[in-house]
Amino acid sequence: MGVLNHLSNMFDCSSGGSKLKKRNQLQTVEIKVKIDCEGCERKVRRAVEGMKGVSSVEIEPKQNKLTVVGYVDPEKVVARVILRTGKKAELWPYVPYDVVEHPYAPGVYDKKAPAGFVRYTEDAQISHLARASSTEVRYTTAFSDENPAACVVM
């Protein structure tokens, strides 16, 4: 297969030079876009289905989620949705709430998120909640029900 690829690249007339074109990987792109009605759904679907490299398009109107599978660049898909539909679109910013250590922290919890999801952030203010100092751990485990040598005052 290496020889065939080399020969096809050598005799390829579509490129202007001898540069090798970087090929996109097959990937799933999830986009958050407001979908109000069936007309909006149709408009978004048509905007993305015409792109080169798109294998499948799935829309979940209740979650305002568009899923595109294919050999595409995520930023180009978002730009295409914005350009063709005029709607605000962004890459899917949510993760399942059980993946995050503190799903109700101020920077993570989002009222607009679909059920079971929270906003994904790697903020330093939130990550300090995950790391408790050894003194804090010592005091919290001293009064734990699971600690057999815990204080009996409780």
> Largest sheet, described in full?
4 strands, antiparallel
Q: Low-confidence spans: pLDDT under 50, at least 5 residues? A: 124-132
Mean pLDDT value: 77
Query: Which oligomerization state do the chains in this entry correspond to?
Result: single chain
Q: What structural class do the secondary elements suggest?
A: alpha+beta
Write down the overall geometry.
Answer: flat
Helix-strand sequence: HEHEEHEEEHH
First-last Cα distance: 73 Å
Order of strands, main sheet, comes to 2-3-1-4
Helix segment count? 5
How helical, in percent, are the residues? 25-40%
Provide the β-strand percentage band.
15-25%
Radius of gyration, CA atoms, in whole angstroms:
24 Å
How many extended strands?
A: 6
Secondary structure layout plus pairing:
Layout: H1 2-10, E1 27-33, H2 38-49, E2 54-60, E3 65-70, H3 74-85, E4 89-91, E5 94-96, E6 117-119, H4 124-130, H5 134-142
Antiparallel strand pairs: 1-3, 1-4, 2-3, 5-6
Helix pairs in contact: 2-3
Q: How would you describe this structure to a colleague?
A:
With about 150 residues, this protein is α+β, with helices and mostly antiparallel strands. The chain is about 30% helix and about 20% strand. It has 5 helices and 6 strands. The strands form 2 sheets. The protein has a 4-stranded antiparallel β-sheet with strand order 2-3-1-4, with helices on one face. The protein has a two-stranded antiparallel ribbon with strand order 5-6. Strand 2 and strand 3 form a beta hairpin. Helix 2 crosses helix 3. The longest helix has 12 residues. The chain is flat. The chain starts with a helix and ends in a 12-residue tail after the last helix. About 5% of the residues have low confidence. It comes from Olea europaea subsp. europaea. InterPro entries: HMA_dom, HMA_dom_sf. This is Heavy metal-associated isoprenylated plant 26-like.
